[in-house]
Amino acid sequence: MNILKSLPLLIICAVMYKIGDSQTLAKNPAISSGNLTLWYDQPAKMKVEGKDSTAMNETLPIGTGRIGSLIFGGTASERLVLNDQSLWTGDEKNEGSYQALANLFINLPGHENAVNYRRDLDLSNATAHVNYSVNGIKYSREYIASNPAQLIVLRFTASKPGGYSGSMNLNDMHGAKTISVLGQGLTSPGTLPNGLKYETRLKVLNVGGSVSSTGNKLIFKGCNSLTILISAGTNYSFDQKKNYHGQAPGEKLKQEINAGAEKSYAMLRGEHIKDYQSLFNRMQLNLGKSSSEQQAMPTNIRKRVAAINTDPEMEALLFQYGRYLLISCSRPGGLPANLQGLWNDSNDAAWRSDYHDNINLEMNYWPSEPANLASCSIPLFDLIQSQLVPWRKATAVAPELNTISGHPTSRGFALRTSHNIFGHTDWKWDKTANAWYCQLLWEHYAFGQEKDYLKRIAYPIMKETCEFWEDHLKALADGTFVVPDGWSPEHGPMEDGVSYNQQIVWDLFNNYVDATSALGIDESYGKKIADMRDRLLSPKIGKWGQLQEWMEDKDDPNDHHRHTSNLFAVFPGRQVSVVKTPALARAAKVSLDARDTSQDTREWSFAWRTALYARLHHAENSHAMLKQFFKDRNSCENLFGLHPPMQMDGNFGMTAGIAEMLVQSHEGEINLLPALPSDWKSGSVVGIRARGGFTVDLSWANNRLIAATIYNVNGSACIVRYGDTVITLNGIKKGKSKQLTF
């Protein structure tokens, strides 16, 4: 090992990988099929030391936006975990938990001793693959989750006719009493204790050979190829008046399966890729080229090295992985991404795999606007609207939420820290979560400039939330307004004037004032809220130069908590910024530096800190936080965030953080490359969005911006900044662009 000490770390890892694994690099065909591919030389393990499966840590995820699957990639025994994002226990009185739906097992006797194995997920076309050879026959599988068809589709082919013989069966995760064989298909309907009906269906299409059944299994013999169509659903509805229950899903699933069976696999695949790429291809990111040693490593090994030695293609992949996951688990018509996106192998998931509103759900949607996936936010807005009635009711009867005058709340709503999809909120009241949700509603307008959306959806919720805080703010002796009895998640005392609460309410009021101006309505109320905004207790600089977390100057410089709640005003807020409030920005960095990363920091914490340092224009610190995500303590082998256990907000947060390093627009101008680290020497970005209705393309070399193209969606003027260079663009017509060189 003394010899290895003199070698570069990348070479050491490559050498150790080759020594320690029976599937050597030399045996792996097509080592890299592209810089947007996660790949592995072995299946995900079914069990580790007799413990539960490692589905959430090692499998590859695919999803239509509503239903999804986790792929193990076993050879003799393949397993797919199946999910529907609306499969929840609980109701309006009990939070319950997000559930797993079913497992599909495909058994292939004789495939135990496979060679030349490869399992991968290609983000460029949302397609997963498993390839291996047995006795000279090459076996290939392809897995897609089609949003247009609302089907998960598996395609098994072989290099020799008659190569597939085996069986498959469904394992319903809730013990459905009936798993029926329907011709060459299976169906598994059931009902949860809360009355929610669910069903899983599949159909097998074979070329050559035969498909039959025995008991509740399908048997296939001598088939040249297999196409397996899977549909799933529940009777969940966004309609609160019907207790969030609609029609049983069976007939709809039958129609989806039958429609899919009428199309060739090539047609299904083509429709899937066209639909997916209509979203994914809106953005491209090039952060530089990685070394051949880095490219040659399977993803589980490569990520560990990327935590130490910069791997630009891996960092670009991480950015795009967050976009892939959001597309795959949050599409219009469905529910928003939960703590695990939509993927779940357990009926007892950590934190119920629910919606946490003290940062986690909000972080899920940080990238949707800048990373050009605005439509992926629609499920969140639909859920918020559907929950308002029970949220208002729960708020009105909570004595701890009485107005400042002591009366029950009659305007607006508040939230506890977590909630389900049936109107129930749970655990500790996080009073200002209502305002934080409003920020997401506002950002959709700020980037897209859709006034009809603002008027119909965002504005009414923002206004009632302002009314809630008009009724609940406490006036100090000098007339300053504070949030009473607040909290700085997830630590500290309950007290007045906590910075986290103050900053979020300021953000709500500020955005509401902008909304009244944009719509030209409620001028007098807008002025009232503007006055209240200006009377809010403002961010303060404490005795050791920090941005205070509390109204009183009592911050502990040795507090290394995972949350950085007192820095909301930096990101995702806009009250503190380098250009407009430089002293507060410097104090924010003092606080952020003091938080440290040695103890309590989690995957999502690193994502938030990546964005925070980027907003403070500290590129190297931001990049260091990004690289931390690749460590085994922060991410799984499949690059899911690892709290631990697994949760997905860090994936989405990292995508947002990288976007902030490249383009910022929260200060009323489009700031280009505000936090470009030295390791990203040359690169380009296409399709990143800026507030005001702009899309931006950039290219740089030798750590200097070369060119930028600003696309104007609505015809408004903008200010563009690069370092000390400031350019005002007045003449870009709607739908046109302006090219700039530097």
From TrEMBL:
Top EC class of this enzyme: hydrolase
The EC number(s) this enzyme carries: 3.2.1.51
InterPro entries: 6-hairpin_glycosidase_sf, 6hp_glycosidase-like_sf, AFCA-like_C, Alpha-L-fucosidase, GH95_cat, GH95_N_dom
A molecular function GO annotation: alpha-L-fucosidase activity
Domain Glycosyl hydrolase family 95 catalytic residues, every copy: 264-662
GO biological process: carbohydrate metabolic process
Protein name (record): Alpha-L-fucosidase 2
Organism field: Mucilaginibacter lappiensis
